[in-house]
């Protein structure tokens, strides 16, 4: 298995750093190939601008169209091209990051904004009466798997169904479904470490054991059963879930997960 780890934390000695290092060691020991994109160490540029698209940039700037033209003509900047190549190389992508203000760090969102260009990660496939592009289960990155490894400051009860922060699956839905599943990546259930600000050295061996177990079962873990867009569950072109497909009482983001 070829694994790309996209790591976003500014402190190498952090809990996130330790989880990243353990992932590299565990996967390599098991015979897998591993590459790491350490975004802070790389001093990753987090904002999209005309400089990303070289001669393909228009004035006024049109980010989607210009990024697609730059991708098609090979004029994206070398840092973006390198990350796209890593994604095409990988069978598995692990995202290691802390949850800050209910989402990923800005540098990781900037990685997505710049790397997931038009025609690379979206804007592909036919649009017709029976199909609305290749996305949500299809697309250029289909055949790959991804896992979010997320550290969260608060206790697990705060992220439960009735917890004040909202269910963790809802908070991660925009990333898992909207960023990763959109271009066809299958998403495994996340590895979430709660109460991370209170983890001690004495706690880490148990955390490490649980993380190693997840890493060694990546290939056999069933992905989240998100509904595929063009395979009968949704009306086209409205993309509304057809009536009667949801279990009684199910609503919200959970509508888009098969029972």
TrEMBL record:
Classification via PANTHER family: NAD P H OXIDOREDUCTASE-RELATED (PTHR10204), NAD(P)H DEHYDROGENASE [QUINONE] 1 ISOFORM 1 (PTHR10204:SF34)
Keyword Oxidoreductase tagged: yes
Entry keywords, A to Z: Oxidoreductase
Example of a GO MF term: NAD(P)H dehydrogenase (quinone) activity
Domain Flavodoxin-like fold, chain residue ranges per copy: 1-215
UniProt record similarity statement: Belongs to the NAD(P)H dehydrogenase (quinone) family.
Lineage: Bacteria, Bacillati, Actinomycetota, Actinomycetes, Streptosporangiales
Official protein name in the record: NAD(P)H dehydrogenase (Quinone)
Cellular component terms per the entry's GO annotation: cytosol
UniProt-listed SUPFAM superfamilies: Flavoproteins
EC class (word): oxidoreductase
Enzyme Commission code(s) on record: 1.6.5.2
Organism of this sequence: Thermocatellispora tengchongensis
Domain of life assignment: Bacteria
